[in-house]
């Protein structure tokens, strides 16, 4: 119970700041409307107005919660969970691209890390390019990837997954290189004393030693993969996905829709990272590593 107190305190502080910011940002519109209608607002009426506007600059938390419930809970109750107006449907579209990009990025990152650790030429040549690749803003490269893939007849899920992969492979490469190099000289000398082959050294020493590093990288990669999938939906003019919801909300000034999509994306990322954390605990426990 004591461990929950700091968390609840931070959450309460966030809500207080959020409500206060909603009042501050939405007050000019409320006063302008009152002036146009020759109405004088009391402080209570002003606060109530700033928390109930249809297109506020910053929606109040209860407005966002109501929108999420309307596009999830109510849709499920009506049997329309995968309706195009449902956030569940849009989350599923984004999740599909996220998972494909994550699997591709993780596989590519692990293979690159193995090559970098076991091949000095790759270490000296590939690793600097891997680092340099992350200096290019994703918003600049995403349209380029979309255009190139569309030119060769590839559209739909794969272009978004490629952008997702681009963001997710980097933390896996860095984490796995660090993990595969984590055994100390004494452990490597002992493997050589036992006349172990490179394969045996990899499977019995380097790979098990890299597991804590790999799972830490996978958590970062999963969050980055989700960001990549959402960014990938923006230049494609997608009509489905959380990125499409953000885009549509920005076109029509639907800030409540924008915030509900953002909160849904954050919840989805937290769920996916928590799932990796559960797999990490089970895996490391079975390997005899304390967690």
Topology overview:
Layout: H1 4-36, H2 43-50, H3 61-71, H4 73-77, H5 87-118, H6 120-133, H7 138-151, H8 157-180, H9 185-193, H10 198-233, H11 242-251, H12 255-286
Average pLDDT over all residues: 85
- The proportion of residues forming helix, as a percent range, comes to over 70%
N-to-C series of helices and strands: HHHHHHHHHHHH
Enumerate how many helices there are, as a single number.
Answer: 12
* Strand portion: under 5%
The 3D shape can be described as: elongated
Assembly context of the chains: single chain
The biggest sheet, with number of strands, parallel, antiparallel or mixed sense and barrel status, is: none
Helix-and-strand structural type: mainly alpha
- Runs in which pLDDT lies below 50 for 5 or more consecutive residues are none
Q: How many runs of DSSP E, i.e. beta strands?
A: 0
User: How far is the N terminus from the C terminus?
Assistant: 21 Å
Gyration radius, to the nearest Å?
A: 24 Å
